[in-house]
Predict the 3D structure of the following.
Amino acid sequence: QELLGIRVEDHGVGFNDTAVDSTSALAGMQEWAALCGGSLEIESIPGQGTTLTLEIPLQPDHDREEFNNDD
């Protein structure tokens, strides 16, 4: 299966990545990636910056319930 991979890095102030809770925008992005059959990894170290790594399949899995729109 072919994947689209995107990595975004910065060298900013970073943050404690264990503090990402289910209501944050980053958690929403992780949920979106999972619904697409992929993943979003968040790595951040206070004082050193942040890296986001997204991988999603190029061909959606049409058998997944989330993508069926039979309404």
